[in-house]
Amino acid sequence: MIDEGLRWMDDRLGISKGGRSFLDKIFPDHWSFLLGEIALYSFVVLVATGIFLTLYFVPSAQQIVYHGAYAPLRGTKVSEAYASTLNISFGVRSGLVIRQMHHWAADVFLGAIAVHMIRIFFTGAYRKPRELNWIVGVTLLTLGIVNGFLGYSLPDDLISGTGLRIAYSIILSIPLVGSYLAFFLFGGAFPGNGSIIPRMFILHVLILPVIIGGLIAAHLGLLVRQKHTQFPGKGRTEDNVVGSPMFPTFMAKTTGFLFMVTGVLWALGGLVQINPIWQFGPYVPYKISYAVQPDWYMGWLDGALRIMPSWEFTGFGHTIPLEIFLPAVLFPGLTFGLFYAWPFIEAKLTHDRAVHHLLDRPRDRPKRTAIGAAALAFYFVLFCASSTDVLANFFQVSLNIVLWSFRFLVFIVPIVAGLVTYRICLDMAGVPGIGKRKRALVVVRSAEGEYETIPSEPRPGDEHEELPPMPVPVAIEGEDDSEELETAGAGEGIRRVPRRP
Amino acid sequence: MSDGATDATGGTGATGGTGATEVGVPAYPVASFDDPHLLPLAKNPRRAEAVVAVFLVLGILGVAAYGALYWVGGQTQWEGVFLGGGLFCIGFGLSAWGKYLLPQGPFVEQRHPMASPEEDRKAMTSAIVDRGGIVVKRRGFLGGLLGAGMGIFGVVAAFPLIRSLGPVPGKTLDRTNWRAGSRLVDFTGRPVSVHDLEVGGALTVFPEGYLDSEQDQAMDQTMLIRAGSADIVTRPGRETWGPEGYLAFSKVCTHAGCPVGLYEEQTQQLLCPCHQSLFDVLDGAVPVFGPAPRPLPQLPLVVDADGWLRAQSGYDQPVGPGFWERS
Question: Which of A51, A58, A174, A416 is exposed most, by the fewest CB atoms within 10 A?
Answer without folding.
Answer: A51
